[in-house]
Design goal:
Layout (H helix, E strand, L loop, with lengths): L1 E2 L8 E4 L2 E4 L5 E5 L5 E6 L11 H12 L4 E5 L22 H12 L6 E5 L2 H10 L3 H9 L5 E2 L2 E8 L7 E8 L4 H9 L6 E4 L7 E10 L4 E11 L9 H4 L11 E5 L6 E5 L1
Parallel strand pairs: 4-9, 5-6, 6-7, 7-8, 10-11, 11-13
Antiparallel strand pairs: 1-4, 2-3, 5-14, 9-10, 12-13, 14-15
Helix pairs in contact: 2-4
Length: 271
Amino acid sequence: MVSSSPYSTLSHIILGGTNVIDDFQLIDIKYDKNTTLNLYPLGDVHIGSKEFDEELFQQWIETVKNDPNGAVVIIGDMMNMGLRNSKSNVYEETLSPMMQKELCYDLLNPIKDKIIGGCSGNHEYRAVKEVGTNPLYDVFCRMGIEDKYRENACFIKLTVGKCGKNPNTYALVLTHGSSKNKDEKWTYSVDGCDCFISGHTHLGTHQPMGKIRMDLSHNKVKLVSYQHIVVLPFQKYGGYAIRGKYMPNSLGQFQCITFDGSSKKVGYSYN
């Protein structure tokens, strides 16, 4: 898996004291195998929270490492970043912001070559507002994959299959998300998307969706389908979730989105 656009040719914006590639710069990924690509969406890990399930996350890392056809996308809130002015109680954090960033790097670095794109969540953005630096961008830079990072949303062109033998191309959109209703509405605004991946709500859902498209080049009106996946968190139930009366999630299941290399087809399962 390689990006077709060298990092040096991409335009940048200055945000939070860092050089961050603009959200609308497409990431072009080619997976030159006539097989299925298994994409593992990752987010809402909340390293530093006392509910962070590090043992479960280590199991997920091993699952990804041992999958020769595996790839990863990240949708933010990798770190909890409980700061003085944030909703999280800074006194309940198990690690300082610096140590959260160190542990995030240590956990992700063994699978850095499998990461094809990522963006931040509202918890990382706490640090941007407080001190003008983004800890997840720092982790991507340290791993040497800053060209795969976007601040708010990530648009990916994913080509799966042997080049020259009619490979299949998929359009992916990553964003951390906000509320269920807002995320669903936002999926309608991105035309041509095959798979929309978000988080934030910790719902862990898969929703096949459709929209009507007017194909004027062929004088047809047709129904096109796409998938909306909300990632599962890596948090044990307790603390903030109980105080806020949020529903518990099913832990121990690893979401996997499959992109077929022989025919255009998106699948979803648990590993």
